[in-house]
């Protein structure tokens, strides 16, 4: 298709310099799995970094082989002529440190032991990801990103970029995100974590050596997660109280279609995702709170930033409701920063940031069109 | 205390007549654990039935021993001079069939095998509970209840009473309830069930014979349930992002106070509640849909009723939001029935029906005062 970036090949970047993480833990070396689309221009001013959310990775657009059935996870947004236009921008996708898609993470071999890291892999914070992404930018010779863009946990990375490296980012696009988790957000994460941690096959995180996978726990975590990604109304429209067989079965097998959907999603995820990575990602969410080092003032935190902002929320998102995005907008205004805000009508709940609601696509296209115009 | 019903003693009622359940399954005999408070008047017109919710039971008010630290689960509502005034009403609490507090349930001995029922215990619907409660009323010589009252799943029983036995109930008090579950409600229930069903110690429901309990699954189910019982705001006010130690720990032990609270609640529950009963209760919730046999029209279902109704909802309840109560009210109005409706401002979410917000207590007191006045 003419609007696809086509066949893409991920590259592994090796960083032999040790990194000291926020927790104090040190990784002596690490690797990042990366994909890029489009061409970096002569003055290296057209680079856009895409930050992924909980279960995302570096494969953001295009296909790995001609036989691939599904493209990268944000293919709707990225490609020639798409809102993030690869004819104009050089787009970078990276699997975050701690991930399970090729970057160094809990399932990678720990050079100190010759075994998978497992429980020895340190907790990673959003700021640690930003640090590794900045080192990647150094390698690519990118001094300043045209934009850093992310949805959900990805939006938190864009926010953190704007605070930690104000000179290195011209625009931050923060979509379906929040300045920190609510108590309820943390509570859901903890149930998901407890499902994994108490799975007998988790083995304290060192299940790799036992030849098993804590599939039950990961499946439950994903099922629960899915409920929070969808809106009550959207779920109702799609599944309602539809029965699998049309009649009550009076048992514990699949009865309602929604059960079938959730169990399928849980099973699928449990077969491919790493349980330790899931734990790490949820902790990064819990810990994110940029106001924390500024006396609890998000406005003070945002005063560090020099970027311009686009903040986007979705009406039926109850995981990170529009009110959470408005907190970010208010802090930016209080800090005298430039911010555009769009609250998009959508039935897709939190997942809307991955969907193609026309008003959303139009907002993204218009904003990034202006970002492109700044390029000479 | 002068407003307590004092020390009460539960009674076990034995029903030797078989009961055919909605599923078609037959129980040859069953027992119900019952408590009563106050005195049945001469014409037996002052009886009030209290229906319990998911984890409730017959012990609704008072204490079992002088050493008891906590009274019955609705002691705030029931007693001399309280809204449900035991000086005027004869109040009945009953542990529902399938329960785990003395009534016949999955942990009871199956007469056919001499072993606990376990997986052989049939699914029970709200209408089945109403049937067993009606038989209990027959035994007590109660032809007509002054009121049937319940919160959440208990409210569904009150609704069902009004439809199935219109002549036997003068008032139905339906609190923090819903006319049927939404897709999201079912989805949460299914995650809870899957946590139990996939616990290796569940043994297909026959864990009793293995000398184990599916504690991990039940604990997760309860943790998840608790999130849906509390409001996001109320949880935020109580726990916020408060850290156990004041500092990030960068690990998977308790970090935030909310985690400590949820895990404690989960552990406590898993030590006392029966996993099979939990499964049954969630299925009863899923199946409840009185409109189903009236062409999907709740108004048509409610047209069967002769009772007067009080419907109560709480502003921050997102498990059964006020909109769900308003569906009931609208159906009752469409059916030309008499209904009072109170939407109570509360921070307590779904749990508010067990709390003592003054406006709520006042509404209950005023309504039941009028119910008492009808008694000669």
TrEMBL record, chains A, B:
UniProt keyword annotation of Acyltransferase present: yes
Family matches, as Pfam families: Abhydrolase_1 (PF00561)
Phylogenetic lineage: Bacteria, Pseudomonadati, Pseudomonadota, Betaproteobacteria, Neisseriales
GO function terms (MF aspect): homoserine O-acetyltransferase activity; homoserine O-succinyltransferase activity
InterPro entries: AB_hydrolase_1, AB_hydrolase_fold, HAT_MetX-like
Function of the protein: Transfers a succinyl group from succinyl-CoA to L-homoserine, forming succinyl-L-homoserine.
Subcellular localization(s) per the UniProt record: Cytoplasm
Enzyme active site: 152 (nucleophile), 317, 350
Site residues by UniProt (Important for acyl-CoA specificity): 319
SUPFAM superfamilies per the UniProt record, alphabetical: alpha/beta-Hydrolases (SSF53474)
HAMAP family: MetX_acyltransf
Pathway(s) the chain acts in: Amino-acid biosynthesis; L-methionine biosynthesis via de novo pathway; O-succinyl-L-homoserine from L-homoserine: step 1/1
Assembly with partners or alone: Homodimer.
Name by which UniProt lists this protein: Homoserine O-succinyltransferase
GO terms for cellular component: cytoplasm
Domain of life: Bacteria
Positions annotated to bind substrate: 222, 351
Coiled coil spans: none
GO BP field: homoserine metabolic process; methionine biosynthetic process
Entry keyword Nucleotide-binding: no
E.C. number(s) listed in UniProt: 2.3.1.46
